[in-house]
Amino acid sequence: MNTLIAIDSFQRRKALNEWLDDCKKRMAFRFPKVRFNSDSWQIKKLYGTAQNDFYFKEHLADLVNCDRSYRETFRCLVAEYVLAGKPKIMHGPCMSFRVFAKEFSQPIFNLGIRDLAQFEQILLDMVKNNPVRASGAMRYAASLEKTVHLLSRKGVTTTLGFFRKAQFKAELSAIINARHIELSNAKAEILDHQIEAFNEAFNAMIGNMSYQDGTPVLTAGDELAICVVAISLCAPSRINEVLLMSIDDYITVEDYVGAHVDEKVTVALSKVHQMLIITQKGSKGAEWGAKPVLQFMIDVFHYCIEKVKKYGARSRMLIEWYQMYPNKLYLPAKIEYLRGQALNQYDLGRIICLESGEPSKSTIQAGAKAIAALKGKSFQVSNPNSLTYRGGTNPRKTISSVSWTDAEEYLLSRVKKAIRACYQVTKVNDYIGDLSKMLFLFDSDDSPFLPGQDLERFLANSAIFDLLASV
User: Fold this and answer.
1) Which sign, positive or negative, has the C-alpha torsion 115, 118, 120, 126?
2) pTM
């Protein structure tokens, strides 16, 4: 019997080695710039994949006390996920394997069905002690089930035929449902207040309400947060998918209406408009679908879409320019005369701030920062401004200047970096398609010459967003 076990372990060790070699060859063919045994696989940075770059250090550190077969298996599993391109977020299945591996000391080849049953009980005990982890435990078990089947197919383990027990799923589901009811009851008391707050905030946005000193009640980030929630309510979808919308991602009946219609057609179209369908991509990978909405929802949806467009109008214009002229710096018509000229800090400030008037404090500061960044390429010229922006006598007789070529190269590098950043909407979601048609572009006043989209920062800083997120 001992001889048979040794032979089985040898064969499974050989199967794991063959799997490692196979994954290494396929990874080298698909991602030749990625070193298989490295601590980081920068697949997104180097190849623009939907999956994020993967870093092994933290995961392998969690498996340091396990038999090395677990670490080798883990690298093979990640390779299979990367080569398949799914799941998009690998944290779940990777974490489930880490949690599982830490419970066993024997090599992965020797795992049996009793070990898997023991792990189910470990998960149940963990959840009973901490019900917050119930949903995670359910996902871990489901992911482990798929992993075990894969290991069996690869010959790394015996054919275990592991499936989650009905009793295990029933007990976990009962804990999850009980916790859901508990959380729902806790939220019910404040839900009315949240909805009321949302209604007041929305009315403040529509009414352009301001304080007595003229300061707007809502910031730009507040208004974007309200629009995100309103669009989500009118066309239900996960918030990340709302932020990934294009300006072409919705239709109206008017898109199909001709210039000349008679009264009967007008009445018919009015009725159709009552049942207008907004198409929206569903959550969790679902295909495009249709949802009938009420008339007031249509109005709110279109109002918010136009409001969001307004906040990204300049960025959209800049992106359209750079799509046509990728290596030509955009200049407003009134300062086009600066093109090809040596630029001092006042000129650079006008370009960065897209202003054509007299230099203000902000334009001077912006120009000075650009000059400082090009310090090694600057030279002194006579100061064209005898007065300061406050109207006093300017004591500086000379100021720094740079050539047009150096200034354009520097500013274009920042533009291209900003455009690349526009595609990354969240840490795990990128915009795909024509960037000039991205709905949630956002104009920043910090550097107007740069197209912007740093929505996470603006939404996170919105005082109202925390309140609205759970409505």
Assistant:
1) negative
2) 0.69
